[in-house]
Amino acid sequence: MLLVGACGYAMTFSLNRIAITEGVPVFPFVFWQGVGAGVIALVAGLVVGQRPNLTGRYLRFYFIFGFVGIALPYTMLALAAPRVPAGAVGLTLTLSPILTYAFATLFRLDRVRLLRVTGILLGLAGILVVLAPGASLPEPDMAPWLLLAFGSPVCYAFGSVTVVFLRPAGSQPIPLTCGIAFACAILMLPVMAAADSWWLFDGTMTEGDWSLIGGGALTACFFVLGLEIIRMAGPVFFSTNGYIGPLAGMGWAALYFGEVPSPWIGLAVALLFAGLFLVNRSTPPPPTAGAGR
Predict the structure, then answer these.
(1) pLDDT tens across 143-155, in order?
(2) Domain extent for 218
(3) Does any domain span residue 244?
(4) Helices 241-257 & 263-280, crossing angle to 10 degrees?
(5) Fewest beta carbons less than 10 Å away: which of 9, 13, 163, 287?
């Protein structure tokens, strides 16, 4: 489940770039990602007899994670997509496990350990290598946009840890995904209205349109698998998709765009993976999501 989810989600970095460069505006792009993922999860839920719960506790969960899990990070990634190589954006996944441990410590799901603190520092060093002017990016002015993309794993790490406390007991991942995705779409409506940014499919079905649809499907799958993995094994284990996602992201970028990583990217990956190893070493599983509620 972890392997499938990470490889599928890593593909979205390339699909995002295709969709945005083909002319899909950023805010409608995020809106349609939510709609697409929500529709797919709704249909899947109806097939297996699982419908979204619309009570207050569930609605709170949907909107919190619709914002933290899709609306905010996807907006960051969409803004960076046309301006930064897709493989470099894929490296942002590597930061998620490190930040997950940091949040787990903050919320007292884990304690401070020297090896893991060292891992965090190695991860930060890897990020600096990626962002260093003239080192790994083709153009220096790409660095601020890549830094913006690194905001997405902050959202994912925070969300994967807080889901332990906020997820309603006994809830199923498919209807939860449906609620989260549609909540994201609702949250994006006032943003599109304020920016006067609207976009609809016009029936021609360009590569950008298909990329948008594919991204919505992958988002639905990623959230269903992620919620189930967190329930079964905890957020720190789920965050180890950061081992798989960056390499898969660079592979998809090479396939779609012919991107060849620079030697500096290799150094950054080595530092980030060393940090991941130290952060995840002997991490005890956190409490089961929704336990005791």
Answers:
(1) 788 788 888 888 8
(2) 2-280
(3) yes
(4) 160
(5) 287
